Amino acid sequence: MKNKKLIALPIIALFGAVSLASCSGNSQAAVDQIYVYSEIVEDTTVGYIYYDSYYLELYQDSTYSYTKTEITYGYTMNLATTVIVNEGSFTTGATSDGYTAITLGAATRVVFQSYSDVGGYNLDIDSDTVSYPTELLASGEGEKVYAQNFEELQAAYGEEKTVYLGDANKFYLTNPAA
């Protein structure tokens, strides 16, 4: 059984944890807004706890940098850590019940870093510099998954998504007013 807890963290608590967001190739545009979101999911069937943190920078030129950090914890240790950075352009949608829909377009740059000493893998991919085919994170033991080109990498880790901006620099993956 999975038990989900939502946590809205103050922005200062995440600055140290999201240094990867500073790899943004968008050094020309000024940051307009910064939003954060976190959640903890406990899977009592296997004894794992999943910590997911999200950091979103919206720039004045309608581009974004979106960082997702996933930590899998179990057996009293960190089992795996994955950081995914997407960069691209966004559009602002309607505001309803105090939440504004923001569509983050499919990433034009994907940075993917994932490692597990327990699982025996260490992947480091930057779509700006990677050579294809490149190995992706497998979903099963012994499985090998490869992206043959940027479009396959984008489909795996940089698809378009809609988030919902709230007050106090929080954002949500689903519409809290729905």
What does this structure look like?
By secondary structure, the chain is mainly beta. Helices cover 7% and strands 54% of the residues. It contains two helices and twelve strands. It has helices spanning 11-15, 150-157; strands at 2-7, 31-43, 48-59, 63-74, 77-96, 99-104, 109-116, 121-126, 134-136, 145-147, 161-165, 171-172. The strands form two sheets. Strands 1, 2, 3, 4, 5, 6, 7, 8, 11 and 12 form a ten-stranded antiparallel beta sheet that branches. The longest helix is centred in the C-terminal third of the chain and has 8 residues, at 150-157. The protein is globular, with a radius of gyration of 17 Å. It starts with a strand and ends in a 6-residue tail after the last strand. 24% of the residues are buried. The model is unreliable at 1-24 (pLDDT under 50).
What's the gist of this structure?
This protein is mainly beta and 178 residues long. The protein has helices spanning 11-15, 150-157, and strands spanning 2-7, 31-43, 48-59, 63-74, 77-96, 99-104, 109-116, 121-126, 134-136, 145-147, 161-165, 171-172.
Features:
single chain; mainly beta; ten-stranded antiparallel beta sheet; 12 strands; disordered N terminus
Outline: globular
H/E topology pattern: EHEEEEEEEEEHEE
Alpha carbon gyration radius: 17 Å
Q: Strand tally, please?
A: 12
Q: Give the uncertain stretches in residue-range form.
A: 1-24
Spatial gap, N to C terminus? 24 Å
- Counted by DSSP, the helix tally is 2
Class from secondary-structure proportions: mainly beta
Average per-residue pLDDT, rounded, comes to 85
Residue fraction in strands: over 45%
Q: Tell me the helix content.
A: under 10%
- How is the main sheet built? 10 strands, antiparallel
